[in-house]
Amino acid sequence: MIDADVVVGLEVHCQLDTKSKLFCGCSTDYRNDGPNTHVCPVCLGLPGTMPVLNRRAIEYAMRVAKALNCTVIPESEFSRKNYFYPDLDKAYQVTQYDKPLALGGYVGIEGDDGKERRIQLTRIHVEEDPGRLVHMGNAERGRYSLVDYNRAGIPLIEIVSEPEMRSPKEARKFLNKLRATLEYLGVFDPEKEGSLRVDANISLRGSERVEIKNITSYKGVERALTFEVTRQKNQLRRGLKVDRETRHYLEARGITQSARSKEQENDYRYFPEPDLRPLRVQSWVKDVKLPELPDARRERFVQQYGCSLNHARTLTGELKMANFFEAVVAGDGNGLCKLAATWIADTLAGELNYRSMGIDALDAKRFTGLLVLLKAGTITDKSGIEVMRVMLDERLKGETVETPEAIVSRLNLAKTTGDDAALLGAVHDVITENPKAVEDYKAGKNGALNFLVGQTMKKTRGRADPGELNRLMVEALKSAEQ
Amino acid sequence: MAVHTINFEPDDRYNAFLKVCAKPSHSEGKLAGIAVAVKDNISTQGIETTCASKILKGYVPPYDAHAVGLIKNAGAAIAGKTNMDEFGMGTSTENSAFGPTLNPCDTGRVPGGSSGGSAAAVAAGMVRMALGTDTGGSIRCPAAFSGIVGFKPTYGRVSRYGLIAYANSLETIGPMATNVSDVSLLMSVISGNDRKDTTSYDKPYAHTPSADIKGLRIGIPEEYFGKGVDPDVGTVVRRAIARLEELGAVTVPCSIPSMEYALAAYYVICTSEASSNLARFDGVRYGPAADTKKSWHAAYQDVRKQGFGPEVRRRIMLGTFALSSGYYGKYYAKAQVARENVRKDFTRLFSDVDVLCGPTMPTIAFKFGEKSDPLSMYLSDILTVPVNLAGIPAISVPCGKVQGMPVGLQVMGRPFEDERVIDVAYAYEQAVKP
Amino acid sequence: MVTEKDVEHIGELADIGIDTSELAIFTGQFNAIVEYFDVLDRVHGDDAVARDLYNVMREDVVEPSLSQDEATRNAGAQEDGFIKAPRVM
User: Nearest by CB to C10, which of B295, B317, B330?
Assistant: First the structure.
């Protein structure tokens, strides 16, 4: 039995959120438009065209380099990576090879052992995205491809890590941290479809390295790597060796599959791009202004708002969530911080995820209103969740989103009090409808009381305070006994 | 601005044109109403642009090359697209997929290449001026062989945007005409910075040729009169240089030791860049369609085998080889060192002399089929390629005849001293004017 | 010495499509040329290319694109605004 140590390295490609493409003036805002509508002679690779470098792409990459503590090298340049593929309009990709923009640097993550770890980076560089292929036809009637070059020439930053992550989970944390950092820097929009792509390499100690290409989702990285760990361990357990190879991740099936050998024989014949001048931008580093980054903000949330480390980590893990939290508690001396942290990091995050909604779907003021109701004891936690769901569903359906107060009033969600006739009526109804449970209670079975309280909760749709209801039920049972 | 048209109905008995624009329109300006022929590797909006290759048959660019836009704005009428060696790969215009161009001086001989169509169109008087391109001599060679003036500007002084790339780091667009004044005029229109070509310089050419070369120091590199150079050609050129001395210039013997390997360096670099530049011709976005039922490598191989001529395929393969894993250091990297040495040799010489003079080509125009093996054809570029490696300006001006065929005097200058090179050619031209 | 197998491999890399009937002649020409290139073995010096222009860039400004028709007009085949290409799967 082999207890293999896992070693993971990642190559992360992120689209830089510029207005125009890396080498031409075509708009990068292509996602809602038809195929081949955001292309020009340059990004179509028409004969005779030449690239002109977008300054902002380099400025963005410099921000990333500084934020990740990389060393910008004195002179960098672009090279051509030559290979044939229908999505590659020039049959070469303009990228950086032996003179990348920056070397070194690191990303801090919470390791599996709970300790802060620094995952070292090899390099970062800038390159162009290829177009997009759609596969058509079938085996009987012939297959072909359709190409849309709208994506061709979108600026990408590639961040290459050293093989220093020790589990698929650490890889996920690395990726989340990287995503948050790039988002904080204002250079990357993680919500745009396909804006991030990852190649992963993984090896078990003493075994060959396997590359997994083209993972297109955040969750996919952990899944693909977990699949690979299991597959490779099984190989070794059966006494087989792990081949050094490239594998593709099949997102829909959650598995990896060996790439055909032909694709592995690539000889990219890199050479410097003769149509672009080299970059000497090292001196720009000192002028790059960095915003507050996730680690600093996390610390501040702990210090300033008394958040737990876990809540602070979740809240600052996404820029919009962190901003939302601060908007909810902004300048507020009424002590909503802890409540807000729990409700946003635990409850709201789950509800949003369930609906595939972004946090900007909710108005921070409305959310503050909800927390005020909870804090004042006007509604129970259960009703609080219901109010939240109503607001989210209203937004999802495109209806007018009501205020929390309006929802509480419309659905009659205000917490019941001891002399609430409806509540007392419900208690009595439950006692009448459940003679068996009442018998059990009398016989001293503790579970019976919980059952009766639960039934009453259901009838009042969670409006009652559980402690209060417990007291009322015991009293009612007592008087029923007499 | 008023738009006019001219009638352009040339008697193209030399196959100079691949496409003739019969009634081209033109506006006002420096070149108003002048018919200008454009080499077919320079993109022209709405006019088929093939690089004399089957692989671009039917391709109509949706944009104008920067230089084409400039000559149109200056009032020129685009007369048509001229024949050339396919993608600029050749020294004779025999490598056109649409048949060779004949030399108007002797139709049994090649007009030189690769801008042979432009040279023939000018030499035969079909047009007053033409645009050519020069990667390793492709303007100067046909100018010399066809008896006209051809100028290769300093690298970066004319935008390459729209020039269908063969070897980006070496090539440039340049003017061709029967006389130095017209070459200078056309140069003044096409030069200058272009924000679409970030290798271009903001050094516009606004010069009127001057024949005063008193005190000019001319270097005479021994290699330009050495092995492989026809002694008769050497004699004619030496006589022309003597003429420049009579005009007050001083000659200084000198040497370019890096010429030993300049040609090899040139062919490694141009084929390497070409192998990448020409990879995009895969039948997907333009040109004859790839069979979409096949897998992509198979479909591309069909298209490229049928679409490219033998010399183009050979150069793509050579370049692929020179860049491939295990050979990059031996060929491509070494060629860059050699190129740097050529540049240094020129820098050293230009610290002492103002220009260098020698023959443009080692021989007169070849007979058709004379250079059948590729290497012997390559060797005829020996006197033109050092200029491209160094990025300096050079001109070829007619300076006499051998066996009734024209010989070109080549004048090479310091980077961005295009004006001085033009002046030397002008001084010679004026001095020998009948 | 470049062998026919080398030439075949280079032909694959370049997607140039070489027939077996062409291999011998291509290989012969290749060897003559490559032999000539060997003069580069004698080259010594610094490969640091002297360049005088750096950081030539444009501002991040959107400019008009081609229309879909202009973009696809030169392609051999189109389908619903896409350009048709050989299969890759």
Answer: B317
Among B53, B96, B114, B380, which one carries the catalytic annotation?
A: B114
Q: Give residue limits of the domains in chain B.
A: 8-434
Mutation target vs B (from C43, C58, C65, C78; most B CBs, 10 A cutoff): C43
Residues of B in contact with A274 (CB under 8 A): 168-169, 199, 273
Name chain C's partners: 3 or more CB pairs within 8 A. Answer: A, B
Task: Answer whether B333 touches C (CB < 8 Å).
Answer: yes
CB neighbourhood size of B357 (10 A): 24
Ordered per-residue pLDDT tens for chain A, 482 residues: 344 589 999 999 999 999 999 999 999 999 999 999 999 999 999 999 999 999 999 999 999 999 999 999 999 999 999 999 999 999 999 999 999 999 999 999 988 888 889 999 999 999 999 999 998 887 777 789 999 999 999 999 999 999 999 999 999 999 999 999 999 999 999 989 999 999 999 999 888 899 999 899 888 999 999 999 999 999 989 999 898 889 999 988 999 998 865 554 689 999 999 999 999 999 999 999 999 999 999 999 999 999 999 999 999 999 999 999 999 997 665 688 989 999 999 999 899 988 888 898 889 988 999 999 999 888 988 889 999 999 999 999 989 889 999 998 898 888 776 667 778 888 888 888 988 888 888 888 878 888 888 888 888 777 888 788 888 888 888 877 65
* Chain B nearest CA to C41, separation (Å): 7
Q: Is B210 a catalytic residue?
A: no
Dihedral sign for Cα atoms in the order B106, B112, B116, B121: negative
How far A274 CA sits from the closest chain B CA (Å)? 6
Question: Which candidate in B138, B146, B272, B275 is catalytic?
Answer: B138
Mapping DSSP onto H, E and C, the string for B13-81 reads: CCCCEEEECCCCEECCCCCCCCEEEEECCECECCECCCCCCHHHCCCCCCCCCHHHHHHHHCCCEEEEE
Contact A49 B160 (CB under 8 A): no
Residues of chain B contacting residue A145, judged by C-beta atoms under 8 Å apart: 292, 296
Residue C1: is it exposed, middle or buried by C-beta count within 10 angstroms (0-12/13-18/19+)? exposed
β-sheet bridge partners, residue A123? A103, A160
CA distance B334 to C44: 8
- Give catalytic status of residue B138 as yes or no: yes
Instruction: For chain A, list the domains and their CATH numbers.
Output: 6-287 (no CATH), 294-410 (no CATH), 421-481 (1.10.10.410)
Distance, CA of B343 to CA of B336 (rounded, Å): 11
CB contact under 8 A, C87 and A147: no
CB-CB neighbours of C20 under 10 Å: 8
**CATH topology classification for B8-434:** Amidase signature (AS) enzymes (3.90.1300)
**What predicted TM-score, i.e. pTM, was given to this entire model?**
0.92
ipTM: 0.96
Compute CA B157 distance to the chain's CA centroid, rounded to the nearest angstrom. Answer: 14
Out of C51, C67, C89, the one facing A135 most closely (by C-beta) is C89
